[in-house]
DNA sequence: TACACTATACCGTCCAGCCGGTATAGTGAC
DNA sequence: GTCACTATACCGGCTGGACGGTATAGTGTA
């Protein structure tokens, strides 16, 4: 008997490792080869699972999409806390983590952006909800809502640029490289002009 | 005998109206329903042409993509001149036209962004080339390359947000509405802080 | 015995690309 | 001027493959 999807609707029960492997494979295919390549067969193969095994965990492709978005939302919630409590300040943290370092959240967001273009409405909503959380934190930190919006737009620009201009498999441009760090420092210096 | 594509490689000869209608239909489907929905049948139907007619003008789906990107590049080249000679200044023009007003270039860019996610490498290159032109003009206008980059990132953020968060058919948020204009004015006021 | 799968086969649908045909407009020969 | 021929601009049907989803029989572990 297939799993009841509602079992995983929240983060209540312990998810199986296979389930997470399937979501990882789904995201990897979305990121590396686009939505069209992320077929059920391909996802199952990449996760080292049979197609039947995939459909055991996710009864349909829509369920797989929902699972991906739910996992992203969970990761985003903890990320917002990281932003709020960042030692160097929320703005510094937000901008520095906008450049796709290959973290699970980064991958989840880029994958969701792929789904959003496929006009999957729930993907759009999930992304919009995440952005709203970010905006709230930044606004809380900088005071001025217009400045907060501008900073978030820079963050968006960084994200979509690294997502689109980068169909490469791995860390082709490592965010910890000296060039990237210097570039980031200069960008943050420019942004600092906005804060009073 | 099918058309030789090289005939249209430049803007030398007069392109047929059907050819442009096909590209319009292709872009519309990409924007409104995503890459997956932009099938040859759907494009042909939307353009009011048979599938055979489409394949007469574009010998393959790749040729259709190439045609779309080539038209975008042509539009972008004239846009760069508009930016350079804008009465209110390049920065003002760039930011105000980053919000998807439904111009042919706007539509072309959003359609190309859809193609880029499908990991069509030529789409990535075409977008990168366009961005490089923009960056050059803005850098020329503001002097500081870091400030130019930050401004372009805001522009990118605006673009991708309006592209992704907006799978709506038409001008659901008209850029000439009072709210949009006010929001844009406030954003430009924030950006003005970066310029000296 | 139940759970978490594997492996295989199959169905209906959709899609890219191909092919034969058609209608029309134009060109050169006589 | 008209006949033979060519080029352009399509139409619409077909095929082979892929995809989502279903079904079923079987396996190993706890």
UniProtKB/TrEMBL annotation, chains A, B:
Pfam families: TetR_C_28, TetR_N
Domain HTH tetR-type: 16-76
UniProt feature coiled coil, ranges: none
Keyword Metal-binding: no
Protein name: HTH tetR-type domain-containing protein
Record InterPro entries: Homeodomain-like_sf, HTH-type_TetR-like_transc_reg, HTH_TetR, TetR_CgmR_C
Taxonomic source organism: Microterricola pindariensis
UniProt keyword annotations, A-Z: DNA-binding, Transcription, Transcription regulation
DNA-binding region: 39-58
């Amino acid at each position: 008997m297939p799993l009841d999807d509602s079992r995983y609707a929240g983060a209540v029960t312990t998810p199986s490792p296979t389930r997470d492997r399937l979501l990882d494979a789904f995201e990897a295919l979305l990121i590396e080869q686009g939505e069209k390549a992320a077929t059920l067969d391909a996802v199952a193969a990449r996760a080292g699972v049979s197609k039947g095994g995939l459909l055991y965990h996710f009864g349909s492709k829509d369920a797989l999409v929902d699972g991906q978005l739910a996992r992203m939302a969970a990761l985003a919630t903890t990320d917002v806390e990281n932003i709020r409590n960042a030692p160097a300040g929320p703005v510094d943290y937000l901008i520095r983590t906008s450049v796709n370092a290959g973290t699970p959240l980064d991958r989840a967001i880029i994958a969701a952006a792929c789904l959003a273009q496929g006009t999957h409405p729930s993907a759009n909503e999930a992304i919009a909800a995440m952005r709203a959380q970010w905006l709230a934190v930044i606004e809380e930190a900088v005071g001025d809502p217009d400045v907060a919006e501008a900073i978030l737009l820079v963050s968006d620009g960084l994200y979509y640029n690294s997502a689109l201009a980068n169909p490469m498999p791995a860390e082709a441009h490592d965010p910890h490289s000296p060039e990237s760090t210097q570039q980031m420092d200069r960008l943050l210096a420019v942004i600092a002009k906005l804060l009073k």
